[in-house]
User: Fold these one by one.
Assistant:
Number 1:
Amino acid sequence: MKELFDEVGQKASKIVTKNYSTSFSIGISLLSQQIQKPIYSIYGFVRFADEIVDTFHDYNKADLFYRFKEDTYRAIEDKISLNPILNSFQWAVHKYNIDMDLIDTFLKSMEMDLSMNNYVEGEYEEYILGSAEVVGLMCLKVFVHGDEKKYQELKPYAMGLGSAFQKVNFLRDLKADFHALGRSYFPELDTIHDFDEKTKKEIIQDIERDFLKGYEGILKLPKNSRFGVYVAYIYYKNLLMKIKKTPAEKIADTRIRIPNQKKYRIFLSSYVRHKVNLI
C-alpha cells in the first residue's frame, strides 16, 4: 500500500502550503489537476527548510537543518521517508526527474541563513539563485513533464520569475529580517536606516526587469500550468506596486501586505483575462 502512504504525504504537503501561503495555495489550485500534487510537494519541502532557518529560534537550528538535509538525501536515495513531507518530495523528484544539483543549490542557500547576517553582492546573487531561482526550475521540471528541450528554452524565464518573487518578499519582510532575524539581504543596506527612496527605486527597477523576463516565459508555458503561474505573477506584481507607492520609511517600519479580499479580486480579474485569451 505504498500508494496510500504516498498519498498521505502529498496531502500533508498540500496542508503545509495552505497553512503557510494563501497566495501560493490559490495559484497551485489553478494549475491543472495532474500537476498540483508535485507542486505542493515541492512547496512543502522548501517551506519546511525555510522554517528551520528562519523561525525555530528556541531550538538548535543548525542541528535541525543538518538532520533535515541528511533526511532529504536519504529519502531521495531510498525512495521513501517516514517524514511525509520528504516522502512527498522524493516522489516528485523521481517522477519529474528533478536534478540533484537544484536540490543541492537550494539547501546551500538555506544553510547560508544559519550564519550570514549581511549579504554582500556575490552572496546576494548566490542566495537568490538557491532560494528562489532553482525552486522555479524545480517547478518548471513539473510543468514541462520531461520535455528537456522545452525546459532548457524556459529555464532563464523561470529563474527570472523566481528571482522577482524572492526580491519582492525581501522588500515586504524588510522590517522582520532586520529586527527579528538581524539579517540584511540587499547588499546596499548595512542598516535599515540605509533604506531610502533612492535605494528603494533602484531595487524596484531591478525587480521590474526580472518580472519582464518572467512574463515572457509565462506566455511560453504549457497551457496546464500557464494560468496558475500567471496568477502568482499578478499577485506579486500588485504587491510590488503597493510597495512602490509606499514611502521608504513606512516599508522599513511595517510589513506590506495585500488583504485577502483584494487578493480574491486580483485572482478573479486574472481569471477573466485568462478566459478571454488575454494571456
Number 2:
Amino acid sequence: MITNKLEACDARQQRGITGLETAIILIAFVVVASVFSFTVLSTGVFASERSKETVYAGLEEAKSSLEPRGSVIAFKGRAGTTTADDTIFKIQFVLSNAIAGESVDLTPPYTLDDSGTDPDISSGAEYKTVISFQDKNQYLSDVPWTIELLGQSSGDFLLEQGEKAEITVWLLQRLTGVSDPLSNNGVARYSASDVNGSNGILTTGTLLNVNDQFTLEVKPGSGSTLAIQRTTPARLDAVMDLK
C-alpha cells in the first residue's frame, strides 16, 4: 500500500517536472522565433532601402547624361609648310541634356581670344568634365577644350534644360598671329602637357589623316560618358561635316 502511494507521488512529481521543462522549451522557441522574425524583417527593410538608393542613384546618373545635337564638324590646319602637313586641328560639336534632369557642369579648362596662341588655359578654373581622344595610334586622356553657349542661356557654365553648348576640342594649337590655320605653320603640335596635365597631339604623336577613325569621350562629373566616334573623309577640306 505504501509502495503504491510512493509510486503515485513519484509519477505526479515527474509529470510536474515534465510540464515545467515543456514550458521552458516553448518559451525558448517563442523567443528564438521572435528574434529570427525581427532579424528577417530588419534585413528585408535594409535590403529594400539599399535597392531604393540604387534605383535613385541610377536615375540621377541618367538625368545627368549628355547627348549630341547636330553634326560633328572638323577643321583643317597646316602643321608644316606643305599640303602633306595638312591635318584636323580642332573638332566641334553641340551638346544638350539627354532628358530634362540635373544640370551638367561644363566649366571649360580653356578659352580662346584669337589674339595669340589658342587655346588659352583658364587660370584657376576647376573643371569637372574631361574629354579624351583616341585613334589607332594614340590615346590622350585629357585634351584641351573650350565652350560657347548657344541661344538661350542662364549665363553660367551649368548646362540646363533647353540650353545648348558648342564644344571645341583642340587637337593642335593655332599659332600666335596666324589668322588662317591653313597657312604655312598655321597650327602646331603640343610640345608637352600643361599645368592642367592636358595636351593635344604631341610632337611625338601622329596627326590625323584621311580615312582615320577616332573617338572622343565626354566624361562629365556626374552622369554617363558620351562617346562620339567618327572617320575622317577621303579628302580633307577646310571645314568637314563628319557624318
Number 3:
Amino acid sequence: MAREQKDILLQPGPLQPPWQTSRRIGIHTSTAGGVETAAERAYRLGCSTFQVFSSSPRQWKPYELGGAQCETMNRLRRQYDLKPLVIHANYLINMASVTDEFYAKAIAALRGEMERGLNLCAEYLVLHPGSFRGLTRAQGLQRAAEGIARAVEGLDLARGGLTLLIENTAGAEFSLGGSFEQVAELIAILEPILPVAACIDTCHIHVAGYDIVSNEGYLLTLQHLDETVGLKNVPVWHCNDAKAARGSKLDRHQHIAQGTVGAEPFRRLLNDRRTAHAAFIAETPIDQPGDDLRNVEALKKLVDDGASAGRKPARRKPRS
C-alpha cells in the first residue's frame, strides 16, 4: 500500500474540475484531518472514484465517526460525482488466525469497519482473507468464513448498499486467496450470508505467477478469472505495477508503467469491455511529491476515449 499523500489541499492555485474518462479511475487517498477530507483530495487529484482507510490501518483501537463527517463526505461525493467509495480494511485483521485472542480482535475490527462503511455510505469494503499458518488451508478457509459471518451478524449490509470484496493475494505460502480458485471458494461460502464479490490486484496477479504481461497471457488469465470468480463479480481493480518479478510472491507496488508489469497490461485492462463496469484504483507509492497525481494521470491516459482521433478528453463539471 502507498504511503499517505502530500497534502494536495494545501497546494496553491485555483481548483480546476479534473477531466475524466469513460472509466472510473482513482487512488487510495489520505484522510489527514478527518476521513471526510479524502473526497476533496480525490477530486483535486482528478479522481472519479477513491479508496480510504476508515481508521488507522495498523492499530486495533477503533475510530469513531461523527455524523457531521459522514454528511460532509456524502455531500462532497455527490457534488464531485465520486463513486464508488471503497474502504480498505485494517491490515492487522486476520480472519484465519489460529490464536483465539487475535481472532476475536479481527472479528471486532472487521465489524467496526463494516459499521463505519455503512455510516459513510461506502459501496465496498476490501478485505485480505488472511493467513492460515498453523492450520490446513481448508481449516483456514472455514475459520475465515465463520469469523466474517460473526463480524456481520445483525448488520443489514444489503439495505446499506455495502458489499465485502475479497482481495486476491500475492501467493505467500500460508495466505488465503493466492489463486483465483481460492478467492472464488471463499466467495461461494459467504454468498448466502452477505453481499460479497472480489477485488483483484494487478501486482498480486503478477507476483502470484499469472501472466498478464504478454497479450496471450493476459487473455488466458482473464479467461481463467472469468471461469472462476467471474469478471462480473469484480467491481474493483487495484491497479498497481510491481517491483518484483512474476511468480516472486513479493508484494511490492510500483508506479504505473515503471515496474515489471509495464503499461500495456493496464491499457488492455482499462479498455477491455468486460471490465467496463469496474472502478480502477491505484495503490502506488509516494516517493516524490506529486506521485499520486502522476499515477492517476498515467492510468487515465491509457484509456482510449477517442484520443487517437485527436479529440481532447472532456472535463467533467462538478454537480451542485
Number 4:
Amino acid sequence: MLAAALVILSGCKNKKPSLTGEDPVEVSDFIDFFPETELPYQFGDTTVAKKEKDSLLISQKVFNQFVPDSLFNKIFGKGTKLKIYPMGKVKASGEETYLFAKAVAGDKKEAFVLAFDKKDQFTDGLSLLRADQLSSTQQSAGMDKGYSISKTITRKNPDGNTSEGKDVYGLNKDTQKFMLIMTDALDDKITELINPVDTFSRKHKFAADYGYGKLNLVSIRDGRKKDRLTFFIHFEKSDGACTGELKGEAIIKSPTVAEYRVGGDPCVLRLTFGSSSVTVKETEGCGSHRGLRCSFDGTFARKKEIKPAKKKAVTKK
C-alpha cells in the first residue's frame, strides 16, 4: 500500500500543471512549458500564420501573472482577448532566459520574444513578426548563437529584383531592455552622416561613438573643461519621417550622468552612461532640435573604436 501511494504521489509531482485555466502557477512551470530550442533559431511568417493545437494554449490570465498586458495592448488594443502559444525557449549560459511566444486575436497573429532574468523575473518584451497576406514580401525572425535577435523582411519589387531590410536587437546588460543595435533599411536613402566632433579628443572613459546604423549616432568627446563632455546627436525615426540633431556640451553631474542645459534653450537632455551604452532622456522639451512627433529618448550601444593602422617604418639600406 505504501509503495503504491508513493508511486501515485510521484506521478502527481511529475505531472506538469495545466496553463489553459485560470489557476495560479509557478513561474518555473510557466517557463518549463516552452520547448527547448537550439541556436541558431529562426522562423518565418508561415510559422506564425499556422493554426496551433489548443492543448498548447496558455490562458491570458496565467500569462499575465508573469508578463504585463501592456506588451500586447500596444499591438492588439487594451482589453482584447488573446490566445497565446509557446514557440521556443533559449537559456543564455546561466543568465537570462528568452521565451518566444505567439499571440492570436481573430485574424491577427504576432510573434514576440520575452526576456527573463536569472531570478526568472520578466524584464522586457519585443514584437518580432506579424503574419500578413502580402504575397510580395516574406518575413523571418530569430536568434543567433550570440543571442542577437533579428527581424528580416524580403520584398519582391515590380522590376523582378528583391530588396531586404533587417533590424538586429540585443538585450542591454545595464538596462535589461531590448535595444536596436543595427539596421539595414529596406530602401536605402541617405548613405553617410558627417560627425562634426569626430576629430575631437576622446580621453574620457565615456568618450566614444554610440548608436546603430549610419543615421543614429550619439558621439561623445572630451569637453573644454574636466567637468564637461562635448556631444553630437543625430537620429532618424519612423523610416526617416522624424529626425533630430543637437551639438553641444553636457555638464557631468555624477559618475554616470551628464546633462545638457544652456540658457536661452528650453531643451534639457540627460545622458546616462552604462558599461556598454548611453541612454538619452529629454527632461525638458527639445522640439526646436527635432520633429514634433518624436524625441531624443533612446538607448544606444557603444561602438568599438576603430584605430588607424600603424605605418611600418621604412628601413634605409
